[in-house]
């Protein structure tokens, strides 16, 4: 599969190009094409990751289907043959990396659920004993399980800007108290349900972020779901409290970038071939484990 960093489809109307996805307007629907671009610290890196767009699309499809009994989602189909005729002309570009989805008005927040204390949450906890304003018990160790999982929303940043953690009250001011509670409850229920499925396959979902939108007055799940871009995956058999865990997700790239003298501003540094290959391998492996 050829690495795709950018799509150009003259017969379709491009309405957005995000950190990873190119979005086309098909009238009643949107076509979301997941490229092989990778971003870290909200900066798009120069290199693509082979098979990344395919993995994100297939994993999102898997989880959307698994969670549709909890809340509706925007997925119509990932099958090019079931898409409008104009898409079939570009099958070689779109195959395996595209979703035809319902249009929805996205809520301007990232719904983050944390089941283990790691990453920025661990750093916050060491400084304040809290994560996004939520007090946690004293004496927690790095990578320890948080029971019950906590909901820590964030703003949804534009390309080149940074997501910022916000309190639940700040989220409620943005979208309304009732809606905020519904999004929180959906996000936690999805996390708990999918974590059980993943653990049966030997994978811990340490944390994840998801997005919701509104369609015809109803809340639906949108964007991507439980992919290596939006979640931290750890091997259950290697899990050990008190230290960082081996990462089967984008954290692997972040860890490499943290070793560089880079100010985390655009332009991002080139990734070495071995980091690209290892990242691709990890993405494919986690997809195969979770979807088989």
UniProtKB/TrEMBL annotation:
Enzyme class: ligase
Region forming the signal peptide: none
Coiled coil, from the record: none
InterPro entries: SAICAR_synt/ADE2_N (IPR028923), SAICAR_synth (IPR001636), SAICAR_synthetase_CS (IPR018236)
Similarity comment: Belongs to the SAICAR synthetase family.
Entry-linked NCBIfam families: PRK13961.1 (NF010568), purC (TIGR00081)
Recorded superkingdom: Bacteria
CC terms in the record's Gene Ontology section: cytoplasm
Keywords of this entry: ATP-binding, Ligase, Nucleotide-binding, Purine biosynthesis
Name of the protein this chain belongs to: Phosphoribosylaminoimidazole-succinocarboxamide synthase
EC number(s) on file: 6.3.2.6
SAICAR synthetase/ADE2 N-terminal domain boundaries: 15-266
PROSITE patterns xref list: SAICAR_SYNTHETASE_1 (PS01057)
Catalytic activity field: 5-amino-1-(5-phospho-D-ribosyl)imidazole-4-carboxylate + L-aspartate + ATP = (2S)-2-[5-amino-1-(5-phospho-beta-D-ribosyl)imidazole-4-carboxamido]succinate + ADP + phosphate + 2 H(+)
Alphabetized HAMAP family for the sequence: SAICAR_synth
A Pfam family matched in the record: SAICAR_synt
GO BP annotations listed: 'de novo' IMP biosynthetic process
One GO MF term: phosphoribosylaminoimidazolesuccinocarboxamide synthase activity
Protein's pathway: Purine metabolism; IMP biosynthesis via de novo pathway; 5-amino-1-(5-phospho-D-ribosyl)imidazole-4-carboxamide from 5-amino-1-(5-phospho-D-ribosyl)imidazole-4-carboxylate: step 1/2
